[in-house]
Amino acid sequence: MTALESRPWLSAYADGVPAEIDEVTQTLPEMLAATVARHGNRTALEFFGATTTYRELGESVDRAAEGLRRLGVTAGDRVAIVLPNCPQHVIAFYAALRLGAIVVEHNPLYTARELRHQFEDHGARFAIVWDKTVDTIADFPTDLRVERIISVDVTEALPRGKRMLLRLPIAKARESRAQLTAKPRAKVALPWSKLVRHRPLSRRAAGPTLDDTALLQYTSGTTGIPKGAVLSHRNLRANAMQGRAWVPGLVEGEETFYGVLPLFHAYGMTLCLTFAMSIGAKLVLFPKFDVGLMADAAKKSPPTFLPAVPPIYDQLARAASRGAIDLSRVRFAISGAMSLPVATVRRWEDTTGGLLVEGYGMTESSPVALGNPMGPSRRPGTVGVPFPSTDIRIVDPDDPSADREPGEEGELLLRGPQVFSGYWRRPAETADALLPGGWLRTGDIAVVSPDGFVTIVDRLKELIITGGFNVSPSEVEDTLHAHPDVEAAAVVAAPRSSGGEEVVAAVVLRDGAELDVEGLRDFCRTRLAAYKVPRRIVAVDDLPRSLIGKVLRRQVREQLLARD
């Protein structure tokens, strides 16, 4: 028995959190149907003030499912969804699942090249697409021609008054409308409004089973090559149950979640599309992060649970401190996708009075696998402890059969009901990711304390090796972030002319600050070993980030190398 097999972290769980979740018995459509039965009159969705009850949502899902069935969608078909956050996205997601089809989520702002790569991989014949992106899909080469494209105008989900305002012949209205909708050139698309005009799908129609694939979620993983993670109904339902168990203070049928994270991302999908729906929460949807939009929504429907990322928490806390938004009702917030600075936690909790904890996961684990307890035992600076029904190991990256002891660095492995079954049609990559016994290799280097709290040191593939020493980019970035002149930083490896790598930093300076390279290096020397101090520091206007705000180190490296 290893030091972790006794689950020492259970003593840190918040009151009421179980060691194991119950057996998974519902597919996602069955989960939604059960919520509709319990909370039919409760508001399920809110979008710019327009509301949809759970009963109306259930009926819309059944109508859309019938429309898809008439188009020829059957069990096992891939149905691509290329939409921003909007009510139609939620309906399309559950409608496709209701037929036993496989949802494939896509970023609607991807380039044609990025979308084409994914469509080549999954081969979807049906696509439900934002009208601003319809032409991109319609222009695919003949060998990728999607049989049916359903075009979604998100403004149809707005309140009537707001739709009328968008039609006014003034510049501001035209600009707002252009951000939300566009008339496709292609005439091949079926309008969403026609798809949902059918009678509801018969309740006797066969649905999926727990072990059927529900979702293909594309991820770059540790290789940088996008792959479709195969997630079953059992995986996704289990993760929603784990999330519910983690926050026992949530009240069934009375919570308001803010859907500011993109639903096409694994994090937003689980916290909003499945977790929120499983407890009858009101889900307030935002097509993009905007403090003003959220402040307006908070006047009518103040949030009580907010999943987001550190930059969003920082901006919201600052806005709340100057009275621009009321966050006093937010009791729980969970951060993911990137390291959560302790300073952000303090600022958020001081401003709102609610709890902010960091979680950890990856697309391959549906995605959440660890979290800080929602209570006094939380430990800012760590990603917390394993979720119920989840086990971890820390192993030698070069020999995953060799366990590391608490306090020693190693690769983090995960096991639990939320762990995926593999990558879509990529057996070699699947074999690399999944080890005997159901263990998932995360590609993250971590340290676990004797009582089970995990600290992520860095990505296995992003470690910088200089002079034979390993350097964690995150450690150097955290040091630079502590300097009063630095707003943001990204640390990457650059090749040396003599061979090997050197540490290079790109920094965004605070307003009014000037770059003092030697001053920053001296600051780092007081906190880091000499080999970790950046050899070069470059000032940049901004850092490339993903749509959820994560710094894209690979792009930073490419930009810095292009400047040399």
What can you tell me about this protein's structure?
Pfam families: AMP-binding, AMP-binding_C. Keywords: Ligase. This is Long-chain acyl-CoA synthetase. The structure is a single chain. This protein is 31% helix and 24% strand. The protein is of the alpha/beta class and 564 residues long. Among the domains are: 165 residues, Rossmann fold (3-Layer(aba) Sandwich); 101 residues, ANL, C-terminal domain (GMP Synthetase, Chain A, domain 3). The chain has an 8-stranded mixed beta sheet with strand order 7-6-5-3-4-8-9-20, with helices on both faces. Strands 17, 18, 19, 21, 22 and 23 form a 6-stranded antiparallel beta sheet that branches. Strands 12-13-14-15-16 form a 5-stranded mixed beta sheet, sandwiched between helices. Helix 9 crosses helix 10 and helix 12 packs parallel to helix 13. It is globular.
User: What's the rounded overall pLDDT mean?
Assistant: 92
Q: Give the class from helix and strand content and strand pairing.
A: alpha/beta
β-strand number: 28
Low-confidence stretches: none
> How are strands sequenced across the largest beta sheet?
7-6-5-3-4-8-9-20
Rg (C-alpha, Å): 24 Å
**Given the C-alpha coordinates, what overall shape results?**
globular
Mind telling me which CATH architecture of the domain at 28-36 and 53-208 this is?
A: 3-Layer(aba) Sandwich
InterPro entries: AMP-bd_C (IPR025110), AMP-bd_C_sf (IPR045851), AMP-binding_CS (IPR020845), AMP-dep_synth/lig_dom (IPR000873), ANL_N_sf (IPR042099), ATP-dep_AMP-bd_enzyme (IPR050237)
Protein name: Long-chain acyl-CoA synthetase
GO molecular function, one term: long-chain fatty acid-CoA ligase activity
Pfam families: AMP-binding, AMP-binding_C
